[in-house]
Amino acid sequence: MNNKQKILLGMIALVLLAVTAFGLVFGKKVLAYLRTWSEGRNKAVIDYIRDPEAHRDWELPALHQCADAPFALPTSGFIGYFYGDSFTPLKLHTGLDIFGGNPVGVTPIYAPYDGFLTRESDWKSSVIIRIPKDPLDPDRQIWVYMTHLADVDGNPLIDDAFPAGTQEKPVKKGDLIGYQGNYSGYPGSPTGIHLHISIVKDDGEGHYLNELQIGNTIDPSAYFGMQLNTDRVDKNVKKPVCLP
């Protein structure tokens, strides 16, 4: 084998390694993105947003709670996106998106569980609740992150009890937190009117991790007592039911 052949084989090997690495890192995300389209999740969300009155049978009520589950549903509406969905290429959804089917500032949002609420000083539309003892694993602490509680221009729809800079304010399950909005983080560029909620891991030192990374979050299914992981959701079911 001459040097040119060796170089060519080496280049081929590098390409194969790169393709394999890409597949391992991004393959699941790409498949999730394709599945979110092919299984009709995106179409269902679009249909609901366009005409919520025609799809009220897809909704669950606020504070709905399955018998053995610790969390109550924090708001009413259609759970359009599940844990692990992908509506943006190469990004997995870290929680649930619940669409209320009402104008901005109308659909209430409540605390799903007892804890201590923080609203960082620069948060226009988000709050996070610290739960010192995970009800499913009391040896660890978890956090519940909720966002899009502002209008398209970033005017907060968070209850006055939680002004910017609030730290560790006790809340009880069912306490009013605010209202569904459509703030995306970019003024003038709205999302659909909804609540995003995710269960976030603790870093082991009393701080929440970055909820944008799915590895920092927890499948919410067992907390709500419903199948909410897209890997196991029946694509034909629009309204999840309580697990047996």
* CATH H-tier superfamily: Glucose Permease (Domain IIA)
What's the number of domains?
1
Q: What are the secondary-structure elements, in order, as H or E?
A: HHEEEEEEEEEEH
Shape: globular
Radius of gyration: 20 Å
End-to-end Cα distance: 65 Å
CATH class: Mainly Beta
Short description, anyone?
By secondary structure, this protein is α+β, with helices and mostly antiparallel strands. It is built from 3 helices and 10 strands. It has one domain (3-224): Glucose Permease (Domain IIA) (Distorted Sandwich), CATH 2.70.70.
Description:
With 244 residues, the protein is α+β, with helices and mostly antiparallel strands. It has a single domain, classed as Glucose Permease (Domain IIA). It has helices at residues 3-38, 41-50, 221-224, and strands spanning 78-81, 96-99, 108-110, 115-118, 127-131, 142-147, 169-171, 176-179, 194-201, 217-218. The strands form 2 sheets. Strands 1, 2, 4, 5, 6, 7, 9 and 10 form an 8-stranded antiparallel β-sheet that branches. A hairpin with an 8-residue loop joins β4 and β5. The radius of gyration is 20 Å and the shape is globular.
Describe the secondary-structure layout.
Elements lengths: L2 H36 L2 H10 L27 E4 L14 E4 L8 E3 L4 E4 L8 E5 L10 E6 L21 E3 L4 E4 L14 E8 L15 E2 L2 H4 L20
Antiparallel strand pairs: 1-2, 2-9, 3-8, 4-5, 4-7, 5-6, 6-9, 9-10
Key features of this structure:
Glucose Permease (Domain IIA); 244 residues; globular; eight-stranded antiparallel beta sheet; alpha+beta; two-stranded antiparallel ribbon
